[in-house]
Amino acid sequence: MLIERKEDLSIYYWLKTLFAEYSFITVVDGFPSENLVIPSVAVEPDTIDMEDFELGNRDGIRLRTWYIDVFGKNKTQRDEFAYKVLDELKNGIPVYDYDISIPSTELIGHLNILKRKLNILRIDPELVSTMYYRATVSILAINDRL
Fold first, then answer.
1. How many other CB atoms sit within 10 Å of the CB of residue 7?
2. Spatial distance between the Cα atoms of 51 and 61, rounded to a whole number of angstroms
3. What is the domain range of residue 115?
4. What's the CATH code of the domain at 91?
5. How many domains does the chain have?
6. Mind listing the pLDDT tens digit for each residue in 86-103?
7. pTM recorded for the entire structure
């Protein structure tokens, strides 16, 4: 399995652990495309930027972006879950080796969060059959072991 997928899975399992105390929240790997269950939290990778860092080093720096979407039944639920994600990101996210097992305890790196941002998305009630509240937490991270 490629390191990018291990990072994706690490964020997914980190979210599952983060919301383990809330048995009614669904955590999804990827943007929910069918039958949106509310409340839920979904993680989707976005861009990977490769930047040269030093002469002679072909690996460079890998900057990655993810979107964590939070769907709540009301404003209070959305805000509580989104703020929880935003706050817990300050410590970064451990990256595990999922070639060994899923879930895994074999630590192979750590995603240092360089930037975290919360956007509240307004949903037009005329466009959706069920009213819900949504926020997106975007993160920019670098793996400290690459």
1. 24
2. 5
3. 3-143
4. 3.30.2000.10
5. 1
6. 999 999 999 999 998 888
7. 0.89
